[in-house]
Structure formats: C-alpha cells, structure tokens
Amino acid sequence: MTATDPALTALVSGWATLSLLHGRIETHIERALQSRNGLSVREYALLDVLSRQHDGEGGHLQMKQVADAVVLSQSATTRLVSRLENRGLLARYLCPTDRRGIYTDVTADGLELLTEARPTHDAACREALDEAATHPELASLAEAVRTLGTSFPRLKRTAPVSTAPSRRRPEGPDR
C-alpha cells in the first residue's frame, strides 16, 4: 500500500469522519451537562460506570477496568476519582476480603446527581445525532450509532439507578 492508495485514503477519510462525529457529539453533551448539571462528560461517564457495580461475582471494577470504560489513562482516572470524591460524589473503601484492594463507590449524592443528569445526557446525545444527520457526510454514521444503541442489549440501560442500593457502605469518619 502506498500513501496515495485509494484503500488507505478511504480508511483515513472514514476515520476522520468518525472522529468528527464523535467530537461533535461529545462537545454537545459536554456543554449540556456542564450548564445544567455541573458535570463533564468524563465525570458523568465515571459516575455511570461505577453506579452499575454490584456485590455479586465480578461486581466491583478494578481501576484499570474503570479507566478503560471511561477512556482515560489509569492516572487520569485516579485524579478524576479524587476530584469526585472531594465533591462528595464518590467514596473509597477497603475491600472486605482483601485489605489491599480499594473500591470506589458512588455516594447517595453522586447517585442523585447522576439521576438528574441522565436525561440531560441522553437528550443531548439525541440532539447531537439529529444535528449530525442533517450533514450528508455524517448522516450514515449518525444512523449507525442509533442502530448500535438498539442492536446491542448490553448497551441498553436495563434498570434505573437506585438511590439506595444495598451495597453502599455507611458514611462516616472511619471510611
């Protein structure tokens, strides 16, 4: 393959279009979340990912898994966790079976903010896709994103976030 190979040019063009769509959607969601809920896209994603943990087998995520889910490095994820912990939206505690393990959990305030922010996030995503669909170069990708959302059950939200899950640890100075 050479630099002017049509297959390579098409691949690069496709990637650039996908990147453009992603950037537009993320920017639209970021503005909506910041103005209405005081959250960044990454903060929202972190709260959302951590809110889905459970006490069952494999229910708690390791920091690497969390970092992968929010598309950040482990160090950036740790800094993000610390910021949200300082805001009272997350709490860390020792694993009850392995004192070396530290879990991060969403607090009641974090769950409340996430519940308030979810409609903003979802509406902004729909708006950004609707807007992208008006541009011929993005329309097919916008439709593909919509199709992905309905095609993969694991990506669908199966239940609303509970504000009083049983796995929450008591708040207090010993945490």
Major sheet size, sense and barrel closure? 2 strands, antiparallel
Multimeric state of these chains? single chain
Radius of gyration: 19 Å
Q: Strand-and-helix sequence, N→C?
A: HHHHEEHH
Number of helices: 6
The helix fraction, in percent, is: 55-70%
Mean pLDDT across every amino acid position: 84
Total E-strand runs:
2
Please identify the structural class as seen in this structure.
mainly alpha
Low-pLDDT segments, ≥5 res: 155-175
End-to-end distance: 58 Å
Strand order of the largest sheet: 1-2
Shape: globular
Strand percent estimate? 5-15%
What does this structure look like?
With 175 residues, the chain is mostly helical. 60% of the residues lie in helices and 6% in strands. The chain has a two-stranded antiparallel sheet with strand order 1-2. Strand 1 and strand 2 form a beta hairpin. The chain is globular. The C terminus is likely disordered.
In short:
With 175 residues, the protein is mostly helical.
Set down the secondary structure blueprint:
Elements (H helix, E strand, L loop, with lengths): L5 H32 L3 H11 L11 H8 L3 H13 L3 E5 L7 E5 L1 H25 L3 H16 L24
Antiparallel strand pairs: 1-2
Helix pairs in contact: 1-5, 1-6, 2-5, 3-4
Keywords:
175 residues, mainly alpha, 60% helix, globular, 2 strands, 6 helices, single chain, 6% strand, two-stranded antiparallel ribbon
